[in-house]
Amino acid sequence: MAAQNGASPHATIAPLAPAADQVFATVGEPLFRAVRAGGYRKIVLQVPAGLVRNAHDLAARLRNETGAVTLVLARACFGACDLPSPDEAPGAEAAVVLGHAPIPNVASPLPTFFVEMRDPGGDPERLAQIVKDAGLPRSLGLVASIQHLDLVPPFVAALSRHGIAGVTAPGDRRLMYPAQALGCNYTTAESVASQVDAFLFLGTGRFHPLGLAFAVDRPVYALDPLRGELEPPIDRGSIVRRRQLLVASCRDARRWGLLVSNFVGQDRTAMARALQAKAAAHGREAELLVFGRLDPNDLLGRDLDAYVCTACPRIALDDSELYPKPVLTAPEFLMALGELPLEPYRFDTYH
Ligand code: SF4
């Protein structure tokens, strides 16, 4: 079980990560002390795109405070699904991963220090007033990015004082905390969708509101906790219709590529094999293609009609237009084969 270091008071699910993994709220002395205590001589630092600017200052701090040789992993990373491997950082004895919580059912390739970069900012009372003044429904499912999860309990209390029910729930084995949002898994929302009139995402950017809109058939609002800006709901009908049109355009595709990732938390080879069997049962050909980080250029020049991405579902949903041929999610592929109806639309929840 990953050890908790004060950052994770709401954890309810026992992670399967190695015992050496530890979780921290921010970069600071508790992290440095733990790395020193491990006696690691060489570590690899992984930072998400939003923190790249600070990566080298952070690496210098780690180096100075721990005495460990510190390598910065340069490739883009998107989640705790693509943790640094020993092959990528030869000789590294541990990893420090910023901006992500562990995914409980993904085992880390190296002893890993997760630094969730929690941000305690945001005034719950002011935010609840904003929600009330905007006339949002009185029953709201709440989901937050990892950085803002600590705001959820006081925000629920503040909403309640305004007569608004803020509903939260734990997710499945891929989510560490109740109310946590992961781009491939919104089970914290799906499990309460029938009890609420809308969802409210606490965080920034469109990535999670968009994913939530695919996953739950409810209006999805987004509230930036630091700026206090409330975004109107995403037009779910239009984004779902676009996907359904793409699915319909693939109904006659004969030759499929089934994309399989070798990242530790994106490898759904078993699912790809099952889809390959389905394709054969419907008289289609389907080839498994293995990759780490998918590059649209890798799909150029292939004699294939369409693809199914069994890795991160957001590759198909968010980046579809970058690829030379249609890229569907697994449920969309089953829709294209006629095994599932187009309605209700099914999000490719990664369990
Ligand atoms: S699979 Fe995709 S959405 Fe899920 S954690 Fe990884 S990068 Fe994020």
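^ iron/sulfur cluster complex. Residues 78-79, 81, 182-184, 265-266, 312, 314, 350 surround iron/sulfur cluster (CB under 6 Å). The chain has three domains: 3-115, 124-234, 237-337.
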